[in-house]
Amino acid sequence: MNDTEKLKAFQTYFDLMGMNGGARIYHIACRLGIFESISKDASTVDKIANNCHFKEKPTKLLLDALCSLKVLECKNHCYSLTPVMHFLSGNYQNLSDEYWDYLPKLLETGVPLARMDDTKESEKQYQAQAAALAWMMKPAAEIASAMLEIGNKRKGSKYY
Known about the structure:
Shape: extended
Strand content: 5-15%
Structural class: mainly alpha
Number of helices: 8
Distance between the termini: 67 Å
Number of domains: 2
CATH class of the largest domain: Mainly Alpha
Strand order of the largest sheet: 1-2
Helix content: 55-70%
Radius of gyration: 22 Å
Order of helices and strands: HHHHEEHHHH
CATH superfamily of the largest domain: Winged helix-like DNA-binding domain superfamily/Winged helix DNA-binding domain
């Protein structure tokens, strides 16, 4: 292996470490209640650490790492949730872990987590997914509605 290949290998290694670290930090913060502790108002490190019964210095390191992932932001020494964290709720806060956790079984058996070609099963799956995706689709629907002037202007039309 020449030096260029070694450098590329090291870059790939560090990229993988970074992706893994980011995912781990996010999941640990979820499990430890970090996001819930600052969900309503921006909070200082000492308040967050106090609410979660953590030490202040390592809490600041974690919060700064979460800022680098763009799930938190810090302004004037106060941490708050970014817009994406307001979207990530319910099943989506875990970033679809149930699908990733099923991957070994899929590889072993070839049986999908849900059979989307079976109408009995797919209907339940689609309904659950549509409900879960409402957080993502609602803003787009509201923007489209405003652009199409759906609402007061079209009230009473045969399509409204």
